[in-house]
Task: structure prediction
Amino acid sequence: SDQKVSDQKVYVSITGLRLKGPRHGPRFFWHAMRSMTQARKADGNISVATRSVDGVHHTLTVWRDEAAMRAFLVAGAHRQAMKAFPSIGTGSTYGYASDTVPNWDEALEIWRQHGREVWARSRETEKPAGAR
Result:
């Protein structure tokens, strides 16, 4: 079931995001499509897949290493999506180094067991107290 990618470890990232309501759908999908396009072109990206299960929008991405994933995370369309996200939905994410890539059933189980809630606000977007 696991697909061995190589003798090298890869970095697997699994997310699950739930919209706060249907009216947020268009904005979510706009950000999601732009972020997916960015991920597919990102240095160090190996694969990008999405699936919706029980109203939760999941991504399963595979990267050369954690540094490549983090560089993608804080840049471009994905950075904009993270800033918009607290008003759009809730979710959790899990990433780990592995020498195999999970299939969807395995990925969803790993996410259910280990997913950590996405912070409502990332530290990068917070302004210091008193700032305008």
In short: Residues 34 and 46 are 17 Å apart (CA to CA). The beta strands are 3-4, 10-19, 45-53, 56-63, 89-98, 100-101, 116-117. The chain has four helices and seven strands. The chain has a mean pLDDT of 89.
